[in-house]
Amino acid sequence: MLPSDFQCYFFLRTSKMLKNGEAPIYIRVKLAGARKDISTNLSCIPERWCNEMKMVNGIQKKDQEINNTLMQWKIKVKEAAEFLARTKEYFEPSDIRDYLEGEYKVSGLVEFFELRISEIHTMIGRGYSRSTIINYKSTLKHIRTFLDQKLRRSDIPLPGISYAFLESFISFLKIEQGCQTNTANKYMRTLRAVLYEAKRKDLITQNPFEKYSLKYERKTRGYLTETELQTLMDKEITIERIAMVRDLFVFSCFTGLAYSDVKSLQNKHIIERNNAKWIIKPRQKSNVDSVIPLLPQAERILDRHTPYSTPGGALLPTPTNQKVNAYLKEIGDICGFTKDLTFHMARHTFATTVTLANNVPIESISKMLGHTTIKTTQIYAKVVENKLLQDIQMVNDRFK
Predict the structure, then answer these.
(1) Residue 1 lies in a domain
(2) What percent of the chain has pLDDT over 70?
(3) For residue 328, is it within any domain?
(4) Cα 32 from Cα 10, distance rounded (Å)
C-alpha cells in the first residue's frame, strides 16, 4: 500500500526550454516532505500543456501518444513506490528514481526476496514453473514471521545474515512452525538459492550457506505392490468421478507422469516411432523431456476418454490436485488399502513395481521419468523384495 502522503504528478519545466521551442516534461514525486523530479524524456509546446489536467491538451496523434506514455510513467512510478513500501520501512523519492533507472540497490533480505519473486514471475515457462513462485512466497512468509516474532523487525540487511541466523531460522521452522525436517529443508533451499543470487549480484560477498549443510531424513516413498495395483485396476467403481480419478492414477502408474504432466498432456505429445507409440513431453517442473513407451494399459485409458478431449486441449479430464487426492483416499478405502493414496504415489509405483521390478535398467527409468541424473531416479526406484529375490536367485543358480 502506498504511503498516505505519496504524490506524483507531471509538470512542464519551462526554465529549460529546448531549441525546438518545446519544454521538457517531468514527473514530480513527493513523499515525507521530500521531492524528486524525474525526466520523462518527453516534451511539448508550452501552449499545448494543460496545468489543470497535468497533461497535453490536444487531439493530434502526437498529443495522444505523449499522454499515453505519461500514463505509463505514472503506473511505473506507483508500482515502484508500492514495491519499496512493501520491502523497506523508510524510503525517499530518490529511491524511486534509482529503482526506475536500474540503479537502486536493495539491501534487505525481504526486499531482495520480493524482487527475486518478481523476476521469476517473468521467467515462468523459461526454466521456472508456477510451483516455484508458490514455494518462494511460502518461504518468504515464514521469513517475515520469523523476523517479526524473533527479531522484532520487518527486514534484515543481507550482509547481516549469518550462520547463526540460519540455525535460528531452521529451529523456528521445526519447533514453532511445526515443519518436518525435510519440509524445513525445502524452505532453507529456497533461502539458499535467493542468497546465491544476491551474491551473484554483488549484494553480499559470501553466502552463509557455503559453511552450512542441511541434514535430511531418509523416508520410504510409498508405492503400490503388483497385487495392490491389480486390485485397484480390477475394482468395480460405479461413481463416475471416482472412476475417473482411478483411471488418472492408473495412467500415471503406467507412464510415470506427475499430476501436472497428466493434466497438460495433449495429442502433440503422442508420437509414433518404430511401429510403437511414445509419450514425449517436457516436464512442467523442469522442462526436461520424458520419453515413455505408451503401454497398453495407459493407451486403453486414453482411448476410453478420447470422446471427452478437445482439439488442441488436454487428453484427460483432470480435476484439481486437491480433489484428486481427496478422491484417492476414497479409492483407497474402497480397495481396502491401509496406506494413504496420493497421486505422486503413482509415479513411485511406475518407478518400482512397473519398471524396476521387471528388470528395466535404471538408466531407462531415469529417461522415462525425465530426470537429469541417475541419483534422482534412485530416490524413486526403491528395490522391491521380489527384485531382490530374483537377483539373489541368479547368484544361487550360478553357484549350484
Answers:
(1) no
(2) 89
(3) yes
(4) 19
